[in-house]
Amino acid sequence: MKRIFAAILLLATAVSASAQDKSSVKVGAPEGDQVIPREIYGQFAEHLGSGIYGGIWVGPESPIPNINGYRTDVLEALKAIKVPLVRWPGGCFADDYHWRNGIGPREKRPSITNNNWGGTVEDNSFGTHEFLDFCELLGCEPYISGNVGSGSVEELADWIEYMTAASDTPMSRLRRQNGRDKPWKVKYIGIGNEAWGCGGNMRPEYYSDLLRRYATYCHDFDGNKLFIIASGASDYDYNWTDVILKNRKGKMDGISLHYYSVDNWGNKGSATDFTKDDWYWVLGKSTEVEEVIKNHIALMDKYDPRKRIALCLDEWGTWWNVEPGTNPGHLFQQSTMRDAMVASTTLDICHKYSDRLKMTNIAQMVNVLQAMVLTQGEKMLLTPTYYVYKMYTVHQGATFLPVEVSTATKEVRGGRGKATRTIPLLSATASRDGAGRVHVSLSNLDADNVHEVTVDLEAVSKSSKAVGEILASKNITDHNEFGKAEVVKTVPFKDFRIKGGQLTVKMPAASIVTIELQ
To answer: Which residues are marked as active site?
Structure first.
């Protein structure tokens, strides 16, 4: 009889789990003064395909509306998501880039072949002045990736002097000859990119010595203080992080980490033609970034317990097969609700670790990989990922509020030697802004079911007023297309109720919601 009862109980539990459509979130009071850095929302603009030429830059003579050569529509779209910093000129391109080719009169600059990305010939009309002026227009910090792979210590030292020296020096005089009297403020300097791969195929022991050498000659000029970032590991390469930190000496303010939501690099799959199994697979891969971040942070805590060195996730995102008919080396892909969900869940995770994780740079900003914006001639469209970044602007610079999430999980087919991956079907994050408003963002990863989410706000808000917005669509493969009405965009959301410190939200399948407590 006991066995029969146990079997019935087990069956009931299994049915309940499979049918579960309820989740709960408890928002806690701030623990200390952890703030979500604005730089968590950083962008990445590499000389790759039309990421720069045609995407950001069309030149002052272009019939496409522009401000001194910068596309007006793209500039305004990026301002709306409050871009805090942009990484440039790469990527792999950085270690082939020699900055002197991109200064002086544009008509006299030498053309170069982009050996990393499709063999495209570039005229260098977008160089140091154009990038740093773009950052000033956008109101963001520049993040310069220095050339270590094919460059020299002197080249990087001169570049820093050219950009930041105010006094009368050889490089500041050259800058003034090229039309810029006042130096720019440049904070972030990367010492190479992917030194373990396209940046030189180096061993960590060798790169750690180069890092010490290069950093020695990265000087602070006239009040400009540099933040030096080491070329860090690719996802699961914990040995690289260990060696770099163990061998460090001198100035090192951060170390990078790269993580893409890809398991099969030989066939990454279509951006728009995929199944629900594919949906869950990539979300399993993307949420695994939490494990990777935690493991790298554990190594950093070992060598740097006072958290003086920042972790910088300066490349991350989805990477699909290119759109049919486009140059394989230009990495032009569409963006669907799946990409939006990768963005929201990744940002939720990054918020949690922002006491150590101080920067991320999604790859990439315009026309490349998981872009915010796509352009086609004079046309421009905003991607679902763009709308996640717009919804999440409320978290930039806000106080982090810890959350406890209770939700159903789903077992998905594995990758990287794993038989399965188990993912939670709800992701959440919360923060309090400078005006005292609490914002809660929720992502329903369940592609089939509505989730009723109960959010306990007792510790942080007694408000009875709230407003919300939602990003959702009829199909998980939906995306915005040129010349057509937007299919995926944020709209006001009202399917919630709030009373006595408790918020109840009815979330459609595959949706992302942000609610502001007023």
So the answer is: 194, 315
